[in-house]
Specification:
Layout: H1 2-8, H2 34-39, H3 43-54, H4 58-62, E1 69-70, E2 75-78, E3 81-84
Antiparallel strand pairs: 1-2, 2-3
Length: 85
């Protein structure tokens, strides 16, 4: 709204001078400790290793199927292109 009145419509309203833009909070990345990683077991451990090791996004990892992985070349396939794991 502030941009609209000041820049687009070029209207100076007195109460707009007091309006301050909202600032985004600083976000720290969530990192697991080695101990927390060691406590994860089963399918979740495999997914966790894939996420950290390959740089896959979460939904890519959750949608990954056995036929998408070439175990001989250690590569994953997505729409006819091989990506190293």
């Amino acid at each position: 709204m502030l941009f609209l009145y000041r820049e687009v419509l070029e209207i100076q309203l007195p109460w707009l001078d007091e309006v301050v833009r909202a600032k985004r909070p600083a976000r720290l990345p969530v990192v697991l400790t080695q101990r927390e990683v060691a406590q994860v077991a089963g399918v979740h451990a495999l997914q966790l290793r894939l996420l950290y090791g390959t740089g896959m996004r979460l939904m890519e990892c959750l949608r990954l199927r056995v036929k998408d992985v070439d175990f001989e070349r250690f590569a994953r396939y997505r729409s006819c292109s091989a990506m190293p794991m």
